[in-house]
Design goal:
By secondary structure, the chain is α+β, with helices and mostly antiparallel strands. The chain has a single domain, classed as TusA-like domain (Translation Initiation Factor IF3, 2-Layer Sandwich), CATH 3.30.110.40. It is built from 3 helices and 4 strands. Strands 1-2-4-3 form a 4-stranded mixed sheet. It starts with a strand and ends with a strand. The model has no long low-confidence stretch (mean pLDDT 95).
């Protein structure tokens, strides 16, 4: 699994970094994006809908989210 560390990054940086991993996701490699900005969760969700991907966000500690992104089978 690929991991994208976006702690401290504000939009649109996490989406730009996710876009660079899009080919890997489409080949079946899930990606975990880690962020400390709640607005990134909605941006990633919108990105996933646009690219026919699935995502699930989990607030692992207060103010830090791990967002799993994968290709739907």
């Amino acid at each position: 699994m690929e991991k994208i560390d976006c702690l401290g990054d504000i939009c649109p940086v996490p989406i730009v970094r996710l876009q660079k991993k899009l080919a890997q996701i489409k080949k079946g490699v899930p990606v975990m994006l880690v962020t400390d900005h709640s607005c990134t969760c909605q941006s990633v969700n919108d990105f996933c809908k646009l690219h026919n991907l699935r995502c699930e966000a989990d607030e692992v500690i207060a103010g830090v989210w791990e967002i799993m992104i994968w290709m739907e089978m």
